[in-house]
Amino acid sequence: MTIQTKAINQTYRHNYHLMPECGWMNDPNGFSTFNNEYHLFYQYYPYDTVWGPMHWAHAVSSDLIKWSHKEIALKPGKDYDRNGVFSGSGIQVGQEHWLYYTGHIDSLLDDLYDQDFKKKSYSETQETIPYIRQVQCLAKSVDGVTYEKYESNPVISSEQVPAGIRVEDFRDPKVWIYQNTFYMVVGAKSREHIGHVLFYTSKDGLSWKYLNQLSLGKEYGTVWECPDLFELDGKHVLLFSPQEKPRVGNRFENVHSTMAFIGEFNYSTGEFTVESEQELDEGFDFYAPQSLLTDEGKRVMIAWMNMWERSYPLHELGHGWNGSMTLPRELSIINGRLIQKPYQKIETYQRNGIEKNDFSINGLYENTSLNGNSQRLDIEFEMTESHQFTIEFFKDTNEKLSLTFDKSKNEIALDRSESEYVIENTGSKKDYIRSQSIDLSNSVHLSIFLDVSSIEIFVNNGEQVFTSLYFSKEVSERILFDSQGTTQVNRLLKWELV
Fold this sequence. Notes:
Largest sheet: 9 strands, antiparallel
Helix content: under 10%
Oligomer: single chain
Mean pLDDT: 96
Number of domains: 2
Number of strands: 30
CATH class of the largest domain: Mainly Beta
Distance between the termini: 32 Å
CATH superfamily of the largest domain: Glycosyl hydrolase domain, family 43
Number of helices: 2
C-alpha cells in the first residue's frame, strides 16, 4: 500500500509546480512528447517520504504547467533492475514511446527491503558484502500509459563499460536521434572517483556501441549524473549534475551542483569541445535538470526542486509527500552564456495584475496589495543612492526569507536562516546563504515566483537564477522592502498565480 492521499497535509502544497500525490520524488525522467502530450516521469518511492527503491511515476500535460497524474509507469522487479529503476529519458520512435533507464542492482538493498519494496525490520536485515551493478535498459509503450520492459534488457550491459569506469556508477541515459542514428550520453565515475560522461551510438536503438567519453578531471566532481546533450542557437549544450564538485568562491556552494558546458559535439568521433561553462542555478534547491523541444520549437528545461544531503522538513513533520519540480524554463544562448527564462505558458495563469511605476524606497516600505505566497512579482530598480536593498518574503515575527543587494560588494544574497523549520545541510551546519556577484551600478530586473513553500528568482532576464524551498511555520504572505539610502523603483508588477 502506498501512502494514503487523504492523509496528505496540504499546508505546503504548491499551486503551479508538479509534486507527487504522495511519497518521495526526485529526478525528472523521460521528459518528452508522445500522442500530442508532454510526458514527465520522475524518480518515486510511494511507501515513504524519503528515498527508497526507485520507481518511475508518470504525469502528463498539455502546457508544461498543469499536470495530471497517471499510474506508476515502471517498477523494479526484474533481475537487472530489482533494486531500482533509476533515471533516464524518453523518445518517440515510430508510433511507440520508448523509455531508457538505468537498472540498479544493490545487494544491500536486497537486505533492507522486502519483495514489495517496503523496509524490513531491523531484525530481518543482515550484513553482506555489497554487490552493485548499473546497466541501461529499455521499456516501450504504444499508448503512453502502459509500458513493457524490453525482453532483451539490458541494452547496454556491464561488459560494454570502457576500462577504468566503475560499473557501480554508470547511469542516467539520455537518448536522442540525429540523422537517423540513435545517440546516448550516460553519466559515470572512474575508478579514481572522477566524473565522466560516456557516448554510445545505435542504428536501431536496441544494439549499442561505445563511441567516446568526456572528463575534465577531479575539479569537476566525482560522478556526472543526469547528462543531457542538445543543439541550441548554433551550439551544443551539455547539461549535467556533478556530485561533490569543490566550491570555487561563492560558486558551487551546494554539496552537489548542476552545470552547463557550451561547445561543439562531433557526432562522428563523439568528441565534445568545451568553449564555456557555468553553474545553472545559484540557489539551494535545483538538481538533475532534463530538457525537451516543445511543439513550438522551444528548448525547455525542468529540474528537481530539492537537494541531497539535507534535512527534509516535510518528512520530519509527517506531511506524507516530499519533493517537487521547478518551473519549466526556456533556454537560449546570449553572448556565450546559457540564459533561463520562465516558460511563457505560465503567463496564462496570471490573474489580478497590479502595477506601480516610478517611486522610491528609503527605509521600510510595505504595500499590502503586494502580499501573497502564490504569485509573480516583477521589479526593476536602481541603487544609485542606496547602499543596501532587501526584499523579505514570508515575513513574520520570527521568520523571513531575505533577498539582499549590497552595493559595496556588488553582491546578491539569498538567506533562509530565519525559519522555524530551517533546512539543514547534513554535512555543513548553518549553510543558509547563497550569494553571487552582480553589477549594481546598473538597473536590476527581477522576476520572482512564489509558490507557498518555494521561490524562484530570475535575475536580469535569466542571466542568473536562484531557486529555494522555504517552510514558514505561519505560512505568512507578508512581503516587506527595506532600503538603506534611496532605491528608485522604476516599475513593479504583481500577479496572482492560480
